[in-house]
Design goal:
11 strands, single chain, three-stranded mixed β-sheet, alpha+beta, Butyryl-CoA Dehydrogenase, subunit A, domain 3, Butyryl-CoA Dehydrogenase, subunit A, domain 2, Butyryl-Coa Dehydrogenase, subunit A, domain 1
Amino acid sequence: MSTEGVTSIESLLDLDSLLSAEDIDLRTMVRQFGEQRLRPHIAEWFETGQVPVRDLAVEIGKLGLLGMHLTGYGCSGSSATAYGLVCQELEAVDSGLRSLVSVQGSLAMFAIHHWGSEEQREQWLPGMAAGELIGCFGLTEPDFGSNPGGMRTTARRDGSDWILNGSKMWITNASVADVAIVWARADDGVLGFAVPTSTPGFSAREMTHKMSLRASVTSEFSLDDVRVPEDARLPGARGLSGPLSCLSEARFGIVFGAVGAARDCLESALDYVGSRQVFDKTLAGYQLTQAKIADMAVELGKAQLLALHLGRLKDEGRIRPEQVSVGKLNNVREAIKIARQCRTLLGANGITLEYPVIRHANNLESVLTYEGTSEVHQLVIGQALTGVSAFR
């Protein structure tokens, strides 16, 4: 099929006109890294469930992408929009790779940067920004995901130390991490701790048999009388506002990341229908095909515009949690619809790892429910609009 006069997905709404030259250059750099370093291996990493996290963290750290939206301690202090575009390009390769960056930067590093002491920032953040130290974020428990307030992990005073007991589940990178941000219930509320994973009593194991996010290390960890000093406690964090603020940071990256996954699916489908012959003409030449393509492109463009708008609000310091919920709810929901629709266009080829579509679709099943399920975000938005909490 001739490409003369063909409009690209990104040029359909001229979205690049909304970006600065610096943003475009950064996006191009990350896209090239993804195409050259990540995409040639991603199908194998997904199929085997093995991903070289430590090697990748160092490489990504050298690009300045870990904790890039934080300031100081080896972090570049980039704009929220720039960080979002990085998440978009990484998730265009695979959600697991974006998760590596967002868990490191928006959960573990953000918790230390925002709620930690100066000593903790100096101890952990430079190595984490370089990718030489890996962090994880322990909030979710086997029985408490959407309701973190019910957590059973405890922190008990013992002299000048704290004793931590409990378990956390569905924790990205816990089994390869150097430091775990642990949230635990104490007598005076929920507290956060930066716990070296070498501390006696800390144990982690990788969770296997996943059908989604296979190119990501997912773990559970246990705390068995883990003794940490007072200076391991994050002094600025008290109550659920601590971990919830970190989750809002991570959700922001997903708003952009989901757009990347959807875009990759649509680009793959466009390429396929342009060459696939059905009844003596290309699949692209059928009205039903073009209707599907048009609808997906419109939804993708709307999701991108929403992400950019939220990026601007965040850069101006005006973003609210319910606005992040709008972005996460809409963009992931539409991305998974696009992935599933693209799968139909590829027919049987859509279920193989020769194409990225089924991999994205599987990954987005996880993205749909982590960092707050769709139902949780609906209730956040509903509360903002009605003034009534429906969580209980």
